[in-house]
Amino acid sequence: MTSVEAIATVPFVDGIVYGEGPRWHDDRLWFTDGLAGRVYSVGETGDLGVELELARASGLGWLPDGTLVVSTLFAAELHHADRHGNLTASYDVSHLAWSTNDLLVAPDGRAYVDLYIADGRSLTGGIGLVSPDGTVRVVATGLSMPNGLGFLPDESTLVVSETHGSRLLAFAAGADGTLGAATVFADLGPQRHPDGLCIDAMGGVWVGCYDTGEFLRVLAGGEITHRIEIDRGWAVAPALGGPDGRTLYLIVDDTTHEGLLAGSSTGRVLQARVDVPGVGSP
């Protein structure tokens, strides 16, 4: 059996409420804090700034013209904002879902968003293809709470965390955004529930398994090559960035399911250095 390499972390940002959706963009780490109603960015020196005020902000991405796209959690909405932090458009997609969550925008403008459907005590859902005018077409259904989204380096395979399915799924993605049938990229076992993810230049997927308090680097087929254990809280979402793409940023939120619904949480961002750089997804 191949040994799993442990990686140490150092603190980076403290004092947020519930971080989500980290993305490296324009030489800064961007992330959302939905419970605080903010989108933040922070440079390498820790100079944290508010980029946008928006309740329930969750997923982030940018259209080719630089428009910021933000999805929400606990509401099915998509929002556009300009470079100055002004909302320019808002779209209600509640006819398709109870809530949205993670968002991925590819360099060519293809965009995908989680669609959650409340079914009694569980969340099922699918994936929506988002056009630049905010309209959404459902391109995958029947998932057990889809979550983190990312493209493999060739940008023709979409990897999706299926949180309640305890696995990562892969979808062939057409140039028009259509998704093929799901295949299993990695089965993580029943105790692990994958949340946010990012992808490196060798096709390794860094994923937060939120309630086991660990970030894993996983290869196709399920081999785990690296593991980062956190001392407390949920391991929510990673992003690769920094000048060389080899800084791994880790969003950690100390809360519970009940606390999240009630707005009670304490979040932070950690960082670590890794050998394989990111590819910009996300």
UniProtKB/TrEMBL annotation:
Q: Where does a divalent metal cation bind?
A: E20, N147, D195
- Names of required cofactors: Zn(2+)
Provide the GO MF annotations for this entry. hydrolase activity; metal ion binding
Transmembrane domains' residue ranges: none
Could you tell me which InterPro entries the record lists for this protein?
6-blade_b-propeller_TolB-like, SGL, SMP-30, SMP-30/CGR1_Lactonase
In which domain of life is the source organism classified? Bacteria
Report the SUPFAM superfamilies cross-referenced here: Calcium-dependent phosphotriesterase
Identify which residues the record assigns to the active site.
D195
How is its cofactor bound, per UniProt? Binds 1 divalent metal cation per subunit.
- Gene3D superfamilies under this entry? TolB, C-terminal domain
Keyword flag Endoplasmic reticulum: no
Its keywords, alphabetically, are:
Hydrolase, Metal-binding, Zinc
Q: Where is the SMP-30/Gluconolactonase/LRE-like region domain?
A: 19-250
In this chain, substrate is annotated as bound at N101, D119
Q: Does the keyword Metal-binding apply?
A: yes
Q: Which protein family is it in?
A: Belongs to the SMP-30/CGR1 family.
**Which PANTHER family does the annotation name?**
LACTONASE DRP35 (PTHR47572:SF4), LIPOPROTEIN-RELATED (PTHR47572)
Q: What is this protein called?
A: SMP-30/gluconolaconase/LRE domain-containing pro tein
Protein species of origin: Mycolicibacterium fortuitum subsp. acetamidolyticum
Taxonomy of origin reads: Bacteria, Bacillati, Actinomycetota, Actinomycetes, Mycobacteriales
